Amino acid sequence: MRYLPHTDDDIQRMLRVIGQPSVEALFAHIPDRLRAKRPLDIEALDEGALLEHLGDLGAHNVPSMGATQRDGAALSFLGAGVVPHIIPTAVDMLLQRSEWYTSYTPYQPEVSQGTLQAVFEYQTMVSEILGLGVANASMYDGASAAAEAVLMAMRVTGHKRVILAGAIHPHTTETIRTYLSAEAATPAELADVCVIVPSGDVGSDGRVALASLIAALDATAEVAAVVVQTPNFFGVLEDVAPLAKAAHDKGALLIVANSEPLAFALIEPPGAVGADIAVSEGLGLAIPPSAGGPGVGLFAARADLVRQIPGRLVGETVDKDGRRGYVLTLATREQHIRREKATSNICTNQGLVALAFTIHLSLLGKNGFREMARLGLAKAEYAKSTLAAAGLPVAFSGPTFNEFAIRLPAGSDARAVVARLADERLFAGVPATADGLLTNAALDRILLVAVAERHKRADIDRLAQRLREVCS
Amino acid sequence: MSADYPNELRYTKDHEWARTEGNTVTIGITKFAVDQLGDITQVELPPEGESLQRESVFGSVESVKAVSDLFAPVSGKVLKVNSPLRDSPEYINEDCYDEGWMVQVEVKDLSELDKLMSVTEYVAYLKEQEGA
Amino acid sequence: MSDRNTKAGTPIETRQLLHTSRPLFEQGAKGRSGASLPSLDVPAIDAAALFGALHRKTPAELPEVSEVEVTRHFTRLSRWNYAIDIGLYPLGSCTMKYNPKVNERVARMPGFAGLHPLQPLSSLQGALELMWRLERCLCELGGFERVTLQPAAGAQGELAGVMMIRQYHAHRGQPRKKILIPDSAHGTNPASCAANGFDVVTLKTGADGLLHADAVKAAIAAHPDDIAAIMVTNPSTLGLFEEHLGEIADLVHAAGGLVYMDGANFNALLGKVRPGEAGIDVMHINLHKTFTTPHGGGGPGSGVVGVGKALEPFLPTPTVEKLGDAYTLDYKRPHSIGRLRSFFGNFGMFVRAYSYIREMGGPGLTSVTELAVLNANYIRARLKEHYPLAYDKPSMHEVVFTDKRLKKETGVQTLDVAKRLMDFGYHPPTIYFPLPAVTGGAGALMIEPTETETPETLDSFCDAMIAIADEAKRDPDLVKSAPHQTALRRLDETKAARNPKLRWTKE
Fold first, then answer.
1. In whole angstroms, what is the distance from residue C33 CA to residue C479 CA?
2. Pairwise CB contact (< 8 Å): C342 & A314
3. Chains that contact B by 3+ CB pairs under 8 Å?
4. Which of A360, A380, A404 is the last residue of a domain?
5. Does the beta carbon of C385 lie under 8 angstroms from any beta carbon of chain B?
6. Taking CA C144 as the corner, what is the angle to CA C139 and CA C150, rounded to the nearest 5 degrees?
7. Quick check: C436 contacting B, CB < 8 Å?
8. Which chains does chain C touch, 3 or more C-beta pairs < 8 A?
């Protein structure tokens, strides 16, 4: 087989050197009761058949990126955790250099300077975008990064509770709850440590009501952190500064979660408005949407909190001859040394996806980053007014970036509308109460629509027209 | 005995040393511990006033590759902490018995010191560990 | 580069012309960009007016460079990396096997890469079918009832597995606090337990390098009715098959506990042992090890978890189900541990792993294990006179040597050998793991060649290791001050830890 180079002669020669009569003899010491009872039943495929089989599976999907609508791709306005952007060809071409994707974790710095310097540049970019002093080498995704941020806040403050405020992506909320349930053994204990305010039931502007948060902070002792998302699950920008102040007044940290880092090209980053830790999902700016994974969890914090940060960190140093170089550092926080006392059990970063993010942002650069955001904002604002004119106004009055919620007319069910339009290859948006998302039936008419720089005016017009027609 | 292990100190099996002056005991880590750890990057020490229990963990010392708990050789109250170590942990590498001292403790029961090893016993203990 | 530092006849395979490239923040010019953005075909919006106080006042200081500079930068940097496509990684426990190129092609098909996770299920049937089929294949390989694909990496898979164990006991009204872990275990094992509020009870590895039933029996007796589980790795981190695992599993089960297996070393078991049939209740599998999804310089991984019937109710939500000819997602799982991350998991890695499994097939994967074990034993045979083995028991897919004799006779230790190997053109093996506690205080050298290496490569590698052992006797300083040939010499890790500089700043 092509990945198994050994010929029969090779095997015989090697067995002679080893001093065993057969390959089976190398397994002779495995007790019978532990052995497999029968051979593995999986059919092998040559490259041609493999490509055909996988091509078939692929053909049973309707992609929305990477193919034209003429080739059967859908026109998609889906966001809700990942807003896809066009990734320039150069990113993937560079990513496909073997030295990037077939290399190992950079534990031996002398032979990994490529990876280490790239991560150093990534850390710098994340620090800049999120406006906080130090960023790590990335976490698995935005949701688990948020959970790790909560655990970090608990270590830093010594407090044991967290308040989740406002419209946070349900996957993030659930992930935080799962991580906290590791220590909080019963549902009652979990409800005690993980306070949710106000459970998807936001005001007319779509934002966290400051009074509700203050009330929750007053009613809850030992709060380690308040978590808010901006832009939030409904696409609305939270006014973070007063929320941060309320948290700090009670000795809690403020954690900002986000799933569209492009927003911070135009709105004040978390670090500038009082956040102590910020996390984000970088998938949309790194690689094609890939059914939601692998992603890349951006994670940044105040510089003075560096020793409590989970995950890998790359630092600058010099070699014996004084040349600048880079190494993994502060590894004593990590599991392979601290074991039970580690800041986290995490062993990996999202290497290749973080690299893709770094290359893309290098191509966009300071001005391109802002320009891409301005284009998306303009198209989204155009979509909001066009949809409003079609009888589909926004659901919340607060400011938005490239994603917003509309409320379908009375009697409509967002899920039914979306299913209908999917048949004509138009993914109109994500229903707020789709499976696995929010469960509040009062939100059944809410549709989350994401409009990016890649959408054309005609695409938006089509969306508005079809939605109007289907809803009437 | 060799200059690596001063005569007047008492030693523990976890490689701490203790220097007695009246009922004050100064504590640090031995050259063996420093050699094992390599370049020290951080020390975590208790605050003044904290009560230490003999043989319990009272802090930690970190190098690039390892973290080691510090075990109290005697029980007592922390009088002074070598706070310059926070910014300059390298003092421990440079001079672990003097500039690299860690905490000074007021001891009630001086007989606890009898449970520690003399320099002769410690050096023998090290040889035994090496052979293992 | 001269050959004078090597044993005559041992070829050095590197001749370098390496360009540096300063961080991009130090390159470029104001106003430069490598972007290609669409034009504005709708009315422009004044963001400052729209956002008021929320408008970002100081822009993010990203580089200002052209596509040419970006391409050169990341091309130059890449050439400073060692990689599987360049040479052997003898890294124990990492399974650095060849990454098939066809996998990269299929993962990039728009029908997979271009999917949004929240599309209507009718438009995701192929993706769901792939996930379902991958799960069936992994069940076949591991002897499991179900497999969750959700965890993003091995460590997250462990977290999930331990959470499911905790839920299992809570569900039976019998919360237990202790988990047994051998002293040879990888650091993530105790970390995952601590994260779940468990106390770790450490089991001492026997003098022969194996876990023994006596140690387990004693630990169980010391904590009656409090053992939640045992976490084992098989083969162990010493590369040895845990021959007493059957009896040990029986003991733990009889005491009401479950058996977790760390599947990092699954490459040694394909077709030979199906853990689910051998008493294992839950096992995580690293797709980026056994199933060849690329390591990517540190990630992404994928830590799928196989379970038997007992833990099936506690799987993360959602699971992939087949109803008739259609595929769907099941969110109604009342006893699930919940979600560990957004969406389905590292789907891009599922495509690659599935492609590999289907290309190799059952007999192919069995050969993978046979040849992985053959390769490791060949290295063992060639090197054991020069580097003492940690243990005598037969090695499986990896072999552990120690620096005990070398250190005693020459002062050269594991780290020095590792650094000197780079001069010969190899990435070092795993060093100082397993921990000194299980290698008699010596520094370990753990070598796992994997099955995709040719015998010639193994011979070159062994020649280099033998040359270094000779050098240690003749000229120890040469080894201790290695590497000499790498473009950077030993880097000051102390400086990096004492004065962390974790981002570029304009000085």
1. 47
2. no
3. A, C
4. A360
5. no
6. 70
7. no
8. A, B
User: Looking at beta carbons, which residues of chain B come within 8 Å of A308?
Assistant: none
Q: CB C12: neighbour CB atoms within 10 A?
A: 15
Give tens-digit pLDDT for C210-223: 999 999 999 999 99
Q: Could you give the domains of chain C? A: 24-78 (no CATH), 103-359 (3.40.640.10), 369-494 (3.90.1150.10)
For residue B103, the domain's CATH number is 2.40.50.100
As a whole number of Å, the end-to-end CA separation of chain A is 60
* Lowest model confidence (mean pLDDT) among A396-410, C227-241, C435-449: C435-449
Q: Chain B contacts of A337, Cβ < 8 Å?
A: 65-67
From chain C, the residues in CB contact with B63 under 8 A are 494
Structurally, chain B folds into a number of domains equal to: 1
Q: Which residues of C touch B38 (CB under 8 A)?
A: 494
Give residues 311 to 350 of A whose Cβ lies within 8 Å of B: 329, 331-332, 337-338, 341
- What pTM, to 2 d.p., does this model score? 0.93
- Segment B111-131, tens digit of pLDDT: 999 999 999 999 999 888 765
Q: What is the CATH number of the domain that holds A124?
A: 3.40.640.10
- How far away is chain A from the Cα of C352, in angstroms, using its nearest Cα? 10
pLDDT value of residue C14: 56
pLDDT of A350-393, one tens digit each?
Answer: 899 999 999 999 999 999 999 999 999 999 999 999 999 999 99
Q: Show residues of chain B in contact with C432, CB under 8 Å.
A: 65
**A270 lies in which domain range?**
95-360
What is the C-alpha to C-alpha distance for residues B105 and B53, in angstroms, rounded to an integer?
11
Domain identity same for A396 and A338: no
Residue A429 lies in a domain: yes
**CA–CA separation, B36 vs A169, rounded Å?**
48
- Residues of chain B whose C-beta is under 8 A from some C-beta in C? 38-39, 41-42, 62-65, 89-90, 132
| Contact assessment for residue C424 and residue C88, using Cβ atoms and an 8 Å cutoff | no
Residue B86 in any domain: the answer is yes
Report d(CA C117, CA A169) in Å as an integer.
Answer: 14
Task: Tell me if C273 and A177 make a contact (CB, 8 A cut-off).
Answer: no
Residues 6+ apart with CB under 8 A from C296: A100, A101, A103, A350, A351, A352, A353, A355
Domain end (from A305, A328, A360):
A360
